[in-house]
Amino acid sequence: MEEKLIFKHRFIEHPKDVEYFKQFPAPLMELIHSGHNVNINATLPFWGPFFYFLVRSLKCEKVLEIGTAEGYSSWYLANAVNDNAVRNGYTDAIFYGIDIVKTEDVKKELDKVGLPNIILNLDTANLTPQTFDGIQFDLIFQDGNHEKKYVLHEIDVLYPQLKGNGLGYLLMHDIMGPSSEAFQEIKDMIKKGIYNFEYTILDDGIYGLAVLRKMENYIERKYPY
Questions:
Q1: In angstroms, rounded to a whole number, what is the distance separating the alpha carbons of residues 82 and 74?
Q2: Domain interval for residue 12
């Protein structure tokens, strides 16, 4: 019989997950991950749940992930978009994804649990303004091909389709690894005024994540408290 870890009402079944949580017990994380269709991702074990709660707190309606891979972070992002629709009454909330591998598998798993999604099998070298014509994204997670020419092209095309006024967020993964050269270029372009972003760096000591907030046409909002 295949070994399982039992936590509350759920099961951790994937052999890699069983191995992971036996080595690093984490009851709350086990519970959060227990409904996932794929095993825990070694490079994104904490970013996945982080993305879910970030997207929820920002009330995002349209989210794009570049580089869906096996769908680890896609599952968290798509669930967050769906739950935001329920909580905030959105009628057109959709998770969008792009990759050149396993896109049918990712879509199948998201469809299976009724999560609104559009997954494209697309090399982002061929990304154009018409790819997502008319769509304004609340958040874009960039984790595809980390070559500088790809990263810069993606941002060049999608910058106009990211919400401004401090409401649009771009997450760049691996900025301390394979995307470091591209991120340095983006920082230089911000200094030159080509892009109007404010940003902070979350340093996990391995990969790193940059959180860029689009400030174009920003108007300071007053809150009733």
A1: 12
A2: 1-35
Structure token digits, residue 73? 């972070």
Nearest to 166 by CA among 107, 211, 119, 109: 211
| Residue pair 146/178 in contact by the 8 Å Cβ criterion | yes
- Name the residue with tokens 């108007």: 219
In a domain, 225, yes or no: no
Please provide the DSSP assignment of 161-187 as one string.
GB-TTTTEEEEEE-TTTTTHHHHHHHH
**Residue 8: what pLDDT?**
47
Structure tokens belonging to residue 99? 């990759």
pTM: 0.93
Question: In this structure, are residues 49 and 31 in contact, taking their beta carbons and an 8 Å threshold?
Answer: no
Once rounded to an integer, what is the mean pLDDT over residues 63-69? 97
- DSSP letter string over 124-159? GGG--TTTTTT--BSEEEE-S--SHHHHHHHHHHHG
> Which tens digits make up the pLDDT trace of 142-178?
999 999 999 999 999 999 999 999 999 999 999 999 9
Q: Is residue 151 part of a domain?
A: yes
pLDDT, tens digit, 9 for 90 and up, residues 94-112: 999 999 999 999 999 999 9
In the chain, the number of structural domains is 2
- Residue 23 covered by a domain: yes
Are residue 66 and residue 12 in the same domain, yes or no?
no
Q: Which CATH number fits the domain that encloses residue 98?
A: 3.40.50.150
Q: Are residues 15 and 108 in the same domain?
A: no
